[in-house]
Amino acid sequence: MQTVRRAAQRGFTLIELLVVIIILAILAAVVIPRVINRTEDARQAAARTDISTLDNQLEAYKLDTGEYPSADQGLQALLTNVGNNPKWNGPYLKNGLPNDPWGHPYIYRVPSEHGLDYDLFSAGPDGQPGTADDIGNWNLRG
């Protein structure tokens, strides 16, 4: 009889373990979605920062050459003198062309579809241009 009491006092009962597991599951259900949303917010902020940086470098390119890169030259014109322009004073980016936070290249489009000199954007999490999750320079300008 004493042996049975000692065993019961030493360990957790099945009900106690189930209560702990349920509490942990509830906490995970509350915390995990918040962490995922924060990660997505951080990726969107990083994309906006990259677009702003590329936008500034395209402005520097225009100041030097008198024009923005053509559609054929694209963002590669920030790295190499693809148009053999004697006024080109690059490279305008130190570390190459970045990919967006979802691993896709940024898209440079001339002519713009938003009334700007050019469109510069990330296709967003879905990787498809022209969808609601695109993040572009048209969102950054006032």
Keywords:
mainly alpha; 3 helices; Glycoprotein, Type 4 Pilin; 46% helix; elongated; 142 residues
Query: What is the global morphology?
Result: elongated
Number of domains: 1
| Main β-sheet description | 3 strands, antiparallel
CATH architecture: 2-Layer Sandwich
- Averaged pLDDT: 87
First-last Cα distance: 80 Å
Helices and strands, in order, run as: HHEEEH
Q: From the alpha carbons, calculate the radius of gyration and give it in angstroms.
A: 27 Å
Q: CATH homologous superfamily - what is it?
A: Glycoprotein, Type 4 Pilin
Main CATH class: Alpha Beta
Total helices: the number is: 3
Q: What do we call the CATH topology?
A: Glycoprotein, Type 4 Pilin
Strand order, main sheet: write it out.
1-2-3
